[in-house]
Amino acid sequence: MNIATRSRSIPLWWLALAAGLVPLITIHGTFAISIFEGYVSWCVPYWESCTSISRTGRYGTAYFVFKGAMLPAALLGILFWWLNGRWLLQLAAPGRGWRWVPWLGLVACVALAAYTLALGHEGKGFNVTRRIGVVLYFSLTYIAQLLISSALKGHPRWHVSGKRLLWLCEVTLSVGILSVILTAVVPDLYSKMDDAFEWVLALLINLHALWVAALWRQSSFQARLWAH
To answer: What's the mean pLDDT in 117-146?
Structure first.
């Protein structure tokens, strides 16, 4: 007697939503905790450049909250980037550059995990790990987002969404270029603004993930489970 195979689909857009929200909620949450415990003064870090993201998770209760949330966020990010590869394959996205997205995302998220583990510890090795981790995370994440946006722009159905995502990538690149120019031309001024640039870049990168989450939902991207 044959038993019919039944399938159940699970929407995946919530995973992309979590990939964008968890880091944002974490850094703002640890910022609030650090203010409450007296490690950071109240300010608006996006333009006052009063504290770095690292400092919000370096002391007190925020130290444990930051590590406890960002390490799972790194694992979530690895899954997010791998699923992006599956999503673009399902969409039959043009070109082949996007096939590097899962690998770029993997290295970026491992770098984020290394940065998180090194945060709050003193020593040359920990300092180097944090710096390398931040650079790799931001740069490789940006490249992966650029590849996704470009692939969608070349897709007949998702052309408009890809174009808008590329616009967001251009804004992110402009902020990065501006920070480099200020570093070279007016280093003293930049030293007073560098933390604000870090906050803005983190916001823009996670906004891209949230936008992708909306596209996953719009395209009905799902995982299918089979049960006998």
So the answer is: 92
Cα angle 72, 76, 82; round to 5: 150
Residue 227 has pLDDT above 70, yes or no: no
pLDDT tens column, 11-60: 899 999 999 999 999 999 999 999 999 999 899 999 888 899 999 999 99
- Taking a C-beta distance cutoff of 8 angstroms, is the pair 207, 168 a contact? yes
Q: How far is CA 141 from the centre of its chain?
A: 6
Domain coordinates in residue numbering, the chain: 10-219
Cβ(224)–Cβ(8) under 8 Å?
yes
The rounded distance, in Å, linking the Cα atoms of 152 and 88 is 8
Tokens 């159905």, residue located:
157
Contact indicator for 212, 16 with CB cutoff of 8 Å:
yes
Residue whose entry in the numeric block shows the structure tokens 């109240």: 42
- Please answer whether residues 118 and 71 qualify as being in contact, where contact means their C-beta atoms are separated by less than 8 angstroms: no
* 3-state SS record for the chain: CCCCCEEEEEECHHHHHHHHHHHHHHHHHHHHHHHHCCCCCCCCHHHHCCCCHHHHCCCHHHHHHHHHHHHHHHHHHHHHHHHHHHHHHHCCCCCCHHHHHHHHHHHHHHHHHHHHHHCCCCCHHHHHHHHHHHHHHHHHHHHHHHHHHHHHHCCCCCHHHHHHHHHHHHHHHHHHHHHHHHHHHCHHHHHCCHHHHHHHHHHHHHHHHHHHHHHHHHCCCEEEEEEC
**CA-based nearest residue to 212, from 154, 164, 172, 170:** 164
